[in-house]
Amino acid sequence: MSSPKRTNRAVTTAAILLSLFMAAMETTVVATAMPTVVADLGALELYGWVGAVYLLGNTVAMPIYGKLSDIYGRKSLMMVGITLFLIGSMASGLSQSMVQLIAFRGLQALGAGGLQTLAFTVAGDIYEVKERARIQGIFGAVWAIAGMSGPFLGGLLVKFLSWRWVFYVNVPVGVLAAFLYVVAFHESVAKRPAKLDIPGALVVTAMVVSLLLGTSRVAPAITIPLAIGFGVIMMLVERRAEEPVIPLDLLRQKVIGLSCILGGVVGATMMSVVTYLPLYLQGILGTSATTAGSMLSPLLIGWPLAATLTGRILSRLSYRTIMIFGWTLATASLVVLSVEIANVAAPGVLYAIMFFLGLGLGFANTPIILVLQESVTWRQRGQATAASSFFRTIGGSIAVGALGAILAGGLAGLADPRLLSEIMGPEHGHHLDPALMGRISAQLETSLVTIFRIIAAMAASALALALFFPPLRLGQGEASLRERQDGALDDGPVGQDTEDAKMTT
User: Fold this and answer.
1) Is the N or the C terminus of the chain less surrounded, counting Cβ atoms within 10 Å?
2) Residue 112: HSE in the Cβ half-sphere, 13 Å Cα cutoff
3) Where are the alpha helices (DSSP H) in 73-126?
4) Are 341 and 273 in contact (CB under 8 A)?
5) pLDDT tens for residues 171-189?
6) What confidence tens digit (pLDDT) does each residue in 59-116 have?
7) What are the respective helix, strand and coil percentages of the chain, to the nearest 5?
8) Closest C-alpha to 129, from 505, 494, 392, 489
């Protein structure tokens, strides 16, 4: 009888990095191309929905992937996620209207929900606690590469081919990642009886959809109360479920609950800036898509740099200290950004602000992932990682949708909304009447100044909340868990944590 196949940790790590690369690349490439997409397909009023529906699908899918991976293992669920992501990418590139693009981005998001969540979960399986802190530096390097290449690649694709290629570019990366997972990552999942929480998944979906519609000013008098009602129903359903999609018992723990809330603000801040800064740059400053994309690069360089530094200093500082420093830096950067935008910021100043914002968010976010994964068992790791991703993406979904509603409200007085699409095009509205162009630009600028002031306020609220985070250090989360469970730590099927973590073949 042949022995079970062993995981090749080095190749599996390469597959994880490719998965994360796709996730980072997708955000920067598409955000850079969106003004050009609007100029081509029209329907500016749906601008925010292209990003919001992607985050919505992500949000709904993440806890489902996390729970199913705890039951059936990570590998098969990762294959499902990559397949849906690539099909959605191709379909998005073939879209002929903004409505089609929104629909296919939703399909793409159902696959993307598994990419980042399961990538971090697999990393938690094959690396021990202290190694996870160091591996964050490598993961950060991937975000840096994607951050540097994504915006430039997006701008080049838009300029020399078309915006459709920002979706097609995912295909070769996704195929390679899937191949590496198949040949290198092996797990032996102990079979156990499990009952899928279908009612919970449906209620969570209804809650998220209602909340997004309400924050996007779609019948808020109806949708907001609906979201609250579905939230109450969700808590009742999940408390009784044998295999809940949303782990309420985990969220009641202070470390995990606070981590998820802070992760939500990270998502809200990050996605809001990535979504609306290119609109400011191309609509107000009249920059090209390439220049607008390059402006996001410092943010996505500072973030992984902070992640790398966090892995080095965690042995000397607590998670809370690093979080507070990160949110202080992020808040200061966003306050300066909102002031500079109100005064028509110079591009050079924006580059510096984006770098320090990336540093701040990197220091704020990295401890969240580490403390979550060291505070739970293998059987809970998928859920805990997914819960963190769930809150991060729902924070982004709500923020992008709500800020999109503010943008739409500020532009409601335009006689012909299609005129704004002219400003986003390659001519930047130079053929329009100067007085008319001035009025349109003024309305757009006023709305965007309000948007960035709100983003700064969100970061300040996270800074205040971080003060209440427990002063834990690296390794103390897992020690606390052992104490709570009287030493009965479940390391997963057939010692997945310890065997695979020590082996590189």
Assistant:
1) N
2) 28
3) 75-93, 98-126
4) no
5) 888 899 889 888 888 777 6
6) 778 777 777 777 777 877 888 889 999 999 899 888 888 888 888 988 888 888 788 7
7) 80, 0, 20
8) 489
Q: Which residue has the tokens 């992607």?
A: 54
Is the CB of residue 312 less than 8 Å from the CB of residue 366? Answer: no
Angle at 115 between CA 111 and CA 119, to 5 degrees: 160
- In contact, 310 and 367? CB cutoff 8 Å: yes
Provide the 8-state DSSP code for 6.
P
Q: How long a stretch of residues is the chain? A: 505
DSSP class per residue in 303-335: HHHHHHHHHHHTTTS-HHHHHHHHHHHHHHHHH
Token pair of 483, please? 């104490």
Residue with tokens 């018992």: 249
156: number of Cβ within 10 Å: 15
- Return the C-alpha torsion angle 160, 162, 167, 169, nearest 10: -20
> 5: phi > 0 → left, psi -120 to 50 → alpha, else beta; which?
beta
Eight-state DSSP code of residue 488 = -
> Which residue is associated with the tokens 């998220």?
208
